[in-house]
Amino acid sequence: MLNEATIAEALHTLGRSASGMERVYLHLSLSDRLLSDVHVLSRYIHLEKLDLSYNKISDLSFISYMPYLLELDVSHNALTTYFDFRPPKNLQ
């Protein structure tokens, strides 16, 4: 199960938020951890890069809450649909 301690260990690249008012972590790498439920990540709105490869994720709707997300790696997961929601506009 994904918890705050696991997330804290995987956060890296400290930078400025889009507004420039806060210092925030911009990158999160949680690959190869057998994760299936990662909806808690919707609270990490400042992330720009997210690696969730090699897990068991089947739902990506949580990323609709990440307006600054630029890069997403969800390869090798249990996805059957990718964007049955509105993805961040700058997502690559």
TrEMBL record:
It comes from the Eukaryota. It comes from Notechis scutatus. SUPFAM superfamilies: L domain-like. Keywords: Leucine-rich repeat, Repeat. InterPro entries: Leu-rich_rpt (IPR001611), Leu-rich_rpt_4 (IPR025875), LRR_dom_sf (IPR032675). Pfam families: LRR_4. This is Leucine-rich repeat and guanylate kinase domain-containing protein-like.
